[in-house]
Each structure stands twice: as C-alpha cells, then as structure tokens.
Amino acid sequence: MQTIEKALHQPMPFTTGGQTITDRLTAAKHSLAGSQLGKTICKATTEEVMAPKKKHLDYLLHCTQEPNVSIPSMANLLIERTQNPNWTVVYKALITIHNIMCYGNEVIS
C-alpha cells in the first residue's frame, strides 16, 4: 500500500509543534531583524492546515490602527506570502488579507 508521501510525490515536511522547520526559520529571521509585524504574518500564514490563529489576526488588526506601522510594508509582506508554492500558506495569506480589509482601519479598505 502506498503511503500518502509517495502518492503526493513530495516529502512530508518535518514539523515541531504544528509548525514546519521552514515556518520557524522564517519567523526567526523576522524576529532577529526586529520585525514583529513580519514574524506575526509568518505565524499567521504557516504551512499548518488550519485557520490562522485569532491572536495573530487580532495583532495585525491592531497594527492597522497604529500610526507608526507601515501599511505598505504589511501589504508587501502579505503579498510575498501569496507567492509561496505551498497552497496552505497562500490560502492563509488570502484569509488574512480578507480579515484585515473587513475589520481593519477604514483607510485600508
């Protein structure tokens, strides 16, 4: 009997605590750069097949109200995530964009 891994013709990502190593490295990169916004976007758009966590969406909505947060930077980070080859990352990025446009600062929508 074929395993799911062979059926999909791709290796299953190694996960720790629900996040893949790639997700953790990307979040760590933003953390080292001092970008809480980038780290939160990476955590909201992980490869994990489940909805983005509410705490990450709430933080991003809060960021839309802050005058010192660059909305174009937020948009660029989210657009970068839509270019990811993993469908779950793209889907979660689109969900996050939708959430921000519906519930974020009216300047965005």
Characterize the structure shown.
There is one protein chain. By secondary structure, the protein is mainly alpha-helical. The chain has a domain of 73 residues: Alpha Horseshoe (Serine Threonine Protein Phosphatase 5, Tetratricopeptide repeat). It contains six helices and two strands; from the N terminus they run H-E-E-H-H-H-H-H. It has a two-stranded antiparallel sheet with strand order 1-2. A hairpin with a 2-residue loop joins strand 1 and strand 2. The radius of gyration is 15 Å and the shape is globular. The N terminus is likely disordered. This is ENTH domain-containing protein. InterPro entries: ANTH_dom, AP180-like, ENTH, ENTH_VHS. One of its GO terms (biological process) is clathrin-dependent endocytosis.
User: For the largest beta sheet, what order do the strands appear in spatially?
Assistant: 1-2
Number of E strands:
2
- Sheet with the most strands, sense and barrel status: 2 strands, antiparallel
CATH structural architecture of the domain at 36-108:
Alpha Horseshoe
Organism: Thelazia callipaeda
GO biological process, one term: synaptic vesicle budding from presynaptic endocytic zone membrane
Domain ENTH: 29-109
Protein name: ENTH domain-containing protein
